[in-house]
Amino acid sequence: MIRIKICCISSPEEAQMAIRYGASALGLVGRMPSGPGIISDKAIFSIAKIVPPGISSFLLTSEITADKIVAHHQATFTNTIQLVDAVPAGTYAEIRRAIPTVKIVQVIHVLSEASLNEALSVAQEVDALLLDSGNPNLAVKELGGTGRTHNWEISKDIVRQSPVPVYLAGGIHSDNIREAVDRVGPFGIDLCSGVRTQQQLDEQKLARLFAAIGR
């Protein structure tokens, strides 16, 4: 069964709504250079502590050094860290030594065929990959939440070759989620803007999304 991660969760009420409809993971967005859904570390902590067993709580962090990533986690205590930017060599090992029970998910922004090699080069060191449509090469980095799709053929190749589970993100909503699942074959789908209206989690959109995948 495809896993659904609802990102940009902003309150305990949104978390509970997403879980009620069938989300298996929640994304909690820390400080970012751009993009939607940013909340304080205090708010992330308050949401993460009510997430029941069996549901993953993802801290989205833009930090790239191990000490700052670990410090960000220690302010929030999620069970998963989502690294939205590339990190220096050795960073994953340092994180694991500091917080060995926390899962690590690396975001790959699918920009070109080179993204395949980028994904496979880090896959052995993380617990999962997440393929998104940002652009970390801009003057103000886009590290997620763009609402754009990317080249799913590249994502399909990454899914086929990756030794770890792969989430697909970027411009997915109730009208194209079935196509995304069928074409790419990911472990999970990650959504933010596709289930929101005026930045608020929209229960009707959430219901349509889960109906579209037969839940």
Could you please describe the fold and organization of this structure?
- With 215 residues, the protein is an alpha/beta fold.
- The protein has a single domain (3-212), classed as Aldolase class I (TIM Barrel).
- The chain contains eight helices and ten strands.
- It has an eight-stranded parallel beta barrel with strand order 1-2-3-4-5-6-7-8, surrounded by six helices. Strands 9-10 form a two-stranded antiparallel sheet.
- Strand 7 (166-168), helix 7 and strand 8 (188-191) form a beta-alpha-beta unit.
- Helix 3 packs parallel to helix 4 (91-98).
- It is globular, with a radius of gyration of 16 Å.
Cα-atom radius of gyration: 16 Å
SS field, number of helical segments: 8
CATH homologous superfamily identity: Aldolase class I
Structural class: alpha/beta
How many β-strand stretches? 10
